[in-house]
Each structure stands twice: as C-alpha cells, then as structure tokens.
Amino acid sequence: MAVGDILSTHRAALGFMALGAALAISAGAVFQSMRQPEPIVAGPGVTRQSMLGDLAPSLAGGPGDTPVFELVGAEPGPTVMILGGTHPQEIAGMMAAVLLVENVTVKKGRLIVVPQANRSGFTHTDPMEAYLHTFEVPTPGGTRWFRVGMRLTNPADQWPDPDIFVHKPSGEGMVGHEQRNLNRVHPGSATGWLTSRVSAALTGLAGQSDVVFDLHEAQPEYPVINMMVVHERAFETAATAVGNLEARRIPMGLSASPKNLHGLSHREFGDFTKAEAMLAESANPAMGRFRGRTSDDLVVGGHDANYEAAARLGRLFVKFDQNGWPLKLRVARHVAAIEEVINAYNELNPDKQIVVENIPAYKDINDKGLGAFLKPPPATKS
To answer: InterPro entries annotated for this entry (predicted)?
Structure first.
C-alpha cells in the first residue's frame, strides 16, 4: 500500500474516532440532562418536604428516590394520599399533584402528595413513539418546564426483564417488562428490584393513610376512560364523589376494582392497608394509537385531527372535537375529583374530617390555564 493511501486511511480512522467520541459526549450530555429534576415549588401549605428514601433507605439518593410533600393541619384528622406520575407519560396526574403542592393548605388532617411516584420513569421516553422529553407552561413569573416520561422504570436502572414476571404474592403471571411497571408490582417488596422497592415504600405511606387516590391517563379509545376505578371498601366514598362530579356537569364513570387483576394500586393498597384505594383516568390523546405527529399542541393543547375523525366514526369512548382534550382540562378534572373525594369522605365520616383549603377551582383552571396556579420558576433549565 502506498504511503499516501496509508495516511489517508489513518486520517479516515481518526475522523471516525473523533466522530464517535463526539457522539458519545453528546449522548452522555442527553443522558445527564434527562436525570435533571424539574423544580417543584413547595407552596405555603407544605409543612414537610422529604424523600421517599427517608422511609426506605435502600432508595435514598438512587433513581427511585422521589420527593414527598406533606401538608399537615393544626388539628388532627384523617390522611389523604395523592399519587401522580405512577406512569410518567400520563402527565395530567403529575400536574394535578403539583398544583396541590403549590397551592393548597390543610387546616385539619394531613395530605401526602407524591407528584412523581416512579421517578426513574421520568428519565427516559420510548424512542419509537417520538414522545417529547419535556413540555413548558407559561406563568406570570416565567416559564416552567416539566418532563414527559415513560410508562416503565428506565431499563438503565433495572435490568434485565424476565421472560415472565410473576407478581407476588398473588402468583399472577405477566409479560416480563411489567416488572418495571409500578402499577403492576404493588404491594412490592423492600428487598426486590427497584420498582418493587419503590412500591413497598409507597405501600408503607398508604398504610398511614385513610384514602389513597392514584391519578392516571389513558388513550381516548380505551374503555376505562374518565372513570374512577375503586376498591370495594372505597365504593361508597367514590360513588358519592362521582355523583357530586356529575351534579357539577363533570362526567365521570365508576368501576369496581377487579379482584382477579393484581399489582394495581386500587387493588393492592385496598387489600394490604386500611386505606380506601381508588384510581382515576383522564383522556390523553398523546398516548393513543390514532394520533398524528407528536407535538406541543398535541401534548399540551390536546388537539389531533386524527382523533376528531375517529370520533366521527364512533371509535372513541369520549367526545373529541376541535377543542380536543387540553392538559388544563385533564388536570382540572383530576383536581375536581380530588376535591369531591375529600368532600365525600367528610360527608360519610362526620367524626373524621380533613379540611383542605385553596384547591384550585375547576372553572378557574380551565379559564385561566395551569400557569395561573404555578409558582414562578426558581431557576431556568440549563
């Protein structure tokens, strides 16, 4: 081989090495940025902010550790626990929890709020679905940013998946990746895989609670949509709350938690703790199979021409028109559901009252937008 050819080959090799190094550095920067937590601002009602790892030391400082906000009244009373972010791409649940943290105060009883129950799931997305990594909400004091995550724990934090995941203690078999689905592993195990340890810690918090409300979203073509799914011991409270929502012209269905489906919060928290356990779903078009290109307008605005066409063909379980299902509406529904569950619990338990004030009103959230109820950003995204 001629000297010139050798030099040319060496230059090409060095060029490929440099390109590889640049790509590795870029990928590392993206990986690190996905681990940067978005700011959640403790409002005036927060009396204690801790981490889930304070309850479960094996999680402390790791990818499953997540903020826990407590709002405790001056007078004793029952405890209500709110979970958002069990499935991190179901962003209305996380945002509803954030609105509680940043706005409400408790006069009697205790409110426990975990906005990002599966924190690891917020550190990745499904590349085949072209999900956004983040979305922004303008506020009077500046722009706030939040993550869009993935339904499952990040495989970088828990791997490998088994061929078959066997739920404990029921023995029910599921596809292997469900071992990373927080809402399939409850009540969890303090010595299990990461997702199971997160579940065990949350089950411990549920054991301190009288009511647990897990906030979710689903695609508009999913039958269990705009509905509460509740454990049998929570049925009277949930039915009363649903009746109150319907009276306010906020449509909400009611479904009993199946006894033969295991690992779900409404089943396992109800079976393994004293809490009245329930879950609510709202309609998120960004999650569905009919949607068009993923965009800010789809994720935050909730608009999609494909879903409008699917609605005209009768393929959906909710109405869908040019107004879409904007994030503010979905969050407003969750917040109203929380309010009515609290009202229903108080109505049915006159000797055990939780008094929560400054819950953002359903109409105000829809009229003013989410930004009106978010604190100014403490820092800009780097």
So the answer is: N-alpha-Ac-DABA_deacetylase
